[in-house]
């Protein structure tokens, strides 16, 4: 069913099982059982919180360079408590089947250990994997099992 050039509002599209929304006759977005999409423009959150509903936890075994598996869109990684010298950076691989090469991975020092003593960053994001790097900037050696918070933002290249 076509809409008029002045229609602004919602219309259910039974052929595609979705709720379309229009502004002045132009479809600008839709909602179905699994997603909300916008035809163009920005999605703004004036108040409230965006919740990633699937989280997980994993603890690193053996040493700070040991890889972990965390296949959720958010979660916490507890690092091994091995010593990390001052001004030293260690990296480890996170296997995550939810991650694509176009995604953005956010990582930070969430809890445990000396706050402000570490720089944490994600890099080398690829299909099913990314790398986390942790650098000790405290001025001395630290042996702390810090907790890293991670979140995956789904991206696209087109």
What does this structure look like?
The chain is mostly beta strands and 158 residues long. It has two domains: 1-44, no CATH class; 55-153, Sandwich (Immunoglobulin-like), CATH 2.60.40.2080. The chain contains no helices and twelve strands. The two termini are 29 Å apart. The model has no long low-confidence stretch (mean pLDDT 85).
Sum up the structure in keywords.
single chain; 158 residues; mainly beta; Immunoglobulin-like; four-stranded antiparallel sheet
- Proportion of residues in helical segments: under 10%
Measured by DSSP, the beta-strand proportion falls in 35-45%
CATH structural class of the largest domain: Mainly Beta
Class of secondary structure makeup: mainly beta
In the CATH classification, which architecture of the largest domain applies?
Sandwich
């Amino acid at each position: 069913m076509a809409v008029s050039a002045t229609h602004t509002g919602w219309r259910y599209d039974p052929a595609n099982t979705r709720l379309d929304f229009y502004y002045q006759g132009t479809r600008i977005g839709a909602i179905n059982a699994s997603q909300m999409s916008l035809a163009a423009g920005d999605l703004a959150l004036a108040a409230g919180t965006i919740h990633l509903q699937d989280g997980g936890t994993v603890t690193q075994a053996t040493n700070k360079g040991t890889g972990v598996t965390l296949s959720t869109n958010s979660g916490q990684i507890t690092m091994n408590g091995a010593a990390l010298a001052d001004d030293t950076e260690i990296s480890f691989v996170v296997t995550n089947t939810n991650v694509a090469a176009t995604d953005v991975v956010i990582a930070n020092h969430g809890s445990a250990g000396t706050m402000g003593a570490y720089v944490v960053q994600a890099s080398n994001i690829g299909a099913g994997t990314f790398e986390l790097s942790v650098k000790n900037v405290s001025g001395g050696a630290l042996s702390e099992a810090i907790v890293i918070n991670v979140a995956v933002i789904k991206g696209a290249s087109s």
